[in-house]
Amino acid sequence: MAGFDVCVSGSGAVAMSLALALSADGWKVAWARSPESTKPPATPDVRTYALNARAIQLLERLRVWPALKAHSAPVMEMDVRGDEGGTLSFSAWQQCVRELAWIVDAAELERLLGEALRFAPRVEVVPPVGEHGAPVEAALLAICEGKHSSTRSALGVSFARQEYGHWGVAARLKATQAHHGVARQWFRSPDILALLPFNQPDPLASYGLVWSVPQARAEHLLALSPAEFERELQDAILQSDPTAPAKVGELSLTSPVAAWPLALAQASRWTGPGWVLLGDAAHQVHPLAGQGLNLGLADVDTLVAVLKQARADEPWRAPGDERTLRRYARQREWPTKAMAGLTDGLLYLFADQRVPMKDLRNAGMSLVQRLGPVKSWLIGKALDA
Length: 385
Ligand SMILES: Cc1cc2nc3c(=O)[nH]c(=O)nc-3n(C[C@H](O)[C@H](O)[C@H](O)COP(=O)(O)OP(=O)(O)OC[C@H]3O[C@@H](n4cnc5c(N)ncnc54)[C@H](O)[C@@H]3O)c2cc1C
Description:
The structure is a single chain. By secondary structure, this protein is of the alpha/beta class. Helix content is 41%, strand content 27%. The protein contains 13 helices and 18 strands. It has helices at residues 13-24, 53-61, 65-69, 92-95, 106-118, 150-154, 215-222, 226-240, 244-248, 292-313, 322-351, 355-370, 372-383, and strands spanning 4-9, 29-32, 48-51, 72-75, 77-81, 87-91, 101-105, 123-126, 138-143, 159-175, 182-188, 191-198, 206-214, 251-253, 258-267, 271-272, 275-277, 283-284. The structure holds flavin-adenine dinucleotide (FAD). Flavin-adenine dinucleotide binds next to α1, β3, α6, β10 and α10.
């Protein structure tokens, strides 16, 4: 198969979802994945992702959701606590939705997307994009290479990166009490700790942990034995919220502990003649709101819709036509900047240790809790990145 419509460069969930979605729409796709991505990872990806309704709808259309659902748990309620008594809670029934989000197994998501691509029509695996551009002739190069994208750099696109100096520590846990579908998050400067209800190994009492801490503390946590890590985690939860241990029970590790450096970043341009950026190659956000992949999958959904519409309305335009691609960028840049601004703002608000700020942010949380429409608006944004 030569003369491709789109060359998709990247090996993660965004690249694979895009290749699958384009193939389902009848485009001829070259998938330039890295050879390493076909080998079993040296360490398992222990992350669980919170995916919103829009992301799940896309995975349903790509036919990976029925199998992924077996490795996922719905979030029925969210309980968010500040550091001076501020509380904010959301529930699916209050929002009139079936669930607020799904917590999915990150490794299983990538495995199932890769499996689906093996049977996708019109998709050919090609060598990775090199210094001299795409390895094949394609009207559009879709760059989904993650935050360290070399193709983005080769195009001269800058990626202004602001390191938080914090790492996201992740692991899987089992609890002695059922989670009842409640996701819990504690903002306790400098930590942000989240327990995401999950269904494995225990269908009713497992969690995915995301614990954002300063780098030195992350290095300390990574060096602990499982028993020491569990003790520090329990202590941190107890200090954040004395009522939590009674609700959560004892926590024990069911996976290794891993950590990722956290940063905020935006590409200076998202499109150019014959190329487009998607996912973490275009933007990186702090995982405190669980939105990075949601934004990337919304990029996929939008680009696929824009290309389909352009093919119907202006069939003479190639998929790499910059005017078409700019429509995609216009639809995606604002929601992404808004989400990045929101998570960044929250982070700085909770990093400030001065007493008036502490009081203000906790009072603010409790105020949002009482203002139904504001709360609904906020959760609506998170449900539909
Ligand atoms: C601790 C933590 C928790 C998170 N939790 C959530 C969450 O709850 N919800 C959520 O939505 N998001 C979450 N995220 C964010 C999410 O992990 C990322 O947004 C998502 O993985 C980005 O996907 P991607 O495919 O764009 O990039 P990546 O996952 O980085 O994939 C890009 C892939 O392309 C490969 N690649 C690079 N260059 C090339 C090349 N030239 N050719 C071929 N392949 C190449 C890379 O090696 C990589 O495998 C979390 C992140 C962290 C760190």
